[in-house]
Design a protein that fits this description.
Radius of gyration: 23 Å
Order of helices and strands: HHHHHHHH
CATH superfamily of the largest domain: Bromodomain-like
Distance between the termini: 49 Å
GO biological process, one term: chromatin organization
CATH class of the largest domain: Mainly Alpha
Keywords: Bromodomain
Structural class: mainly alpha
Number of domains: 2
Largest sheet: none
InterPro entries: Bromodomain-like_sf
CATH architecture of the largest domain: Up-down Bundle
Length: 172
C-alpha cells in the first residue's frame, strides 16, 4: 500500500486524477490501487516542482503587483497632494489600508500571503519614514507590524510551512 491510502477512502476516490488514471490505464488493479498510485505520483511531484511554471507564476504575480501599485498610487497621489503635501513630498510610494483591503479581494492582484504581507510592510515602512519615533501613529505601526509577524509565524507553524522572514525597516 503506497502512502497509506485506501481507495475506499472517499477523499482519495474524489481525486479527478484517479478517474483519469482509470480511464487511461487498462490495468486490472486500478480500482484497488489507483488512488495510491496517484498519491505516490503527487508526493513525488512535490519533490520535483515545475520550475518554469513557478517562474511564470512569479512573473505574473510581479506584473499584477505592479498594476496594483500603479492603481493605488495614482488615486492616492491625487488625494495626498491636496490634503497632505508634506507627506506626498517625503513618501514616494504611499499606500492606504483601504487599498490593501480593496485589492486583497482581487486574487489576480494579491494571490499569495507574501504579496499581501509586502503591502502591509510597505505601509509600516511609510509610517516609520514619515512619523516621529515615539508618536502614537509610529507606535501603532510597530504594534501592528508585530501582530502581523506573529500571526504569520503562528500560521506557518500550524500549517507546517516555512515562516516569514521577519521584516523590519532595516531590511526593506
Amino acid at each position: 500500500m503506497l502512502c497509506g491510502l485506501h481507495t475506499a477512502d472517499p477523499i482519495c476516490m474524489s481525486y479527478p486524477m484517479v478517474e483519469a488514471l482509470q480511464q487511461t490505464v487498462h490495468w486490472i488493479w486500478t480500482p484497488r490501487f489507483g488512488a495510491e498510485v496517484v498519491a505516490a505520483i503527487q508526493t513525488c511531484l512535490l519533490d520535483y516542482p515545475d520550475v518554469e511554471l513557478q517562474e511564470r507564476k512569479e512573473r505574473e504575480q510581479e506584473r499584477n503587483f505592479a498594476v496594483l501599485q500603479a492603481m493605488a498610487q495614482k488615486d492616492l497621489r491625487k488625494k495626498l497632494a491636496l490634503t497632505w503635501p508634506a507627506y506626498y513630498k517625503i513618501i514616494k510610494e504611499p499606500i492606504l489600508i483601504a487599498y490593501i483591503k480593496k485589492y486583497s479581494m482581487q486574487p489576480k492582484l494579491i494571490n499569495s500571503t507574501s504579496a499581501y504581507t509586502v503591502l502591509w510592510h510597505h505601509l509600516f515602512d511609510n509610517t516609520h519614514q514619515f512619523d516621529q519615533p515615539g508618536s502614537l501613529i509610529y507606535q501603532d505601526a510597530d504594534f501592528l507590524q508585530g501582530v502581523l509577524n506573529q500571526t504569520l509565524q503562528e500560521l506557518s507553524t500550524v500549517h507546517h510551512v516555512p515562516g516569514p522572514a521577519i521584516h523590519t525597516e532595516m531590511n526593506s
